[in-house]
Amino acid sequence: MVLSKRIARFNKVATNRVLGRAAPRLPGMAMVVHQGRRSGRRFETPVNVFERPDGYVIALTYGPDADWVRNILAASGCEIVTKGRTIRLTDPRVVHDEDRTDMPKRARFILARFGVSDFLYLRRAD
């Protein structure tokens, strides 16, 4: 059971506005900066990120069909702002992993409780 569309709408309107200011500076969080597929507009979405040796992985708590995920896939990348730095990411790929292999132990447990098993992997562009 991935988080519902109703929760997603609430978060988009309320929670993301509050988190949006803090996410780029909080550990384990980032602001994903992506471009709309049709509108070309710039969007910012706060997410939990997990650093890997070659880039980052994001748990897709709303599933792989979320607009921001589709925008990143269509553009073949995005930027994230985390720990006060802007990082260009490329080669996005959605991976279905029931074992949540690349997640820290605590995150694995929480994601399993919500049925999250899809992840967005991104590689550093530099």
UniProtKB/TrEMBL annotation:
Gene3D superfamilies: Electron Transport, Fmn-binding Protein, Chain A. One of its GO terms (molecular function) is oxidoreductase activity. It comes from the Bacteria. InterPro entries: F420H2_quin_Rdtase, Split_barrel_FMN-bd. This is Deazaflavin-dependent oxidoreductase (Nitroreductase family).
